[in-house]
Amino acid sequence: MNEADIPIDIHAGKLQDWLVSRRIVNKNWHLNVRDVRSKISSALTDMPAHDGLVQLLKGAHINYFHCQQIIDILKMTEADTKNVFGRYGSQRMKDWQEILRLYEKDSLYLAEAAQILVRNINYEVPGIRKQIKNFEQLAEEAEKKIEDLKRSENVVLGEYHTLCKQLGIAGDNIRQELVVKVGELPKMLNDIAGTVSALKKAIELYSAFLGNEGCLPILRHVASSGNTTVYEFLYSEPPLSIEEPPVKFELKEKEQAPAGEIDFGDAGGEAIDFGDAGQIDFGAVDNAEINLEVGDIDWGAPEEGAAQDGNEIDFNISLEESGIVVEGDGNAGGVAKGDEAYTVCDSPVYREKFINELLELEAFLKMRLYELSTADKVQILSLTMMDNFPDHDTKSLTQMLSQVDVVYSQINSQLIQHLHRIKHSAKYVDILTSKLKQKLLAIDKMKDTAKLMKEKTIAFRQQGVDLKPTLAKVIEQTKTLQGQIEKDISKRYKNRVVNLMGANL
Question: Which pLDDT score is estimated for 173?
Answer without folding.
Answer: 82
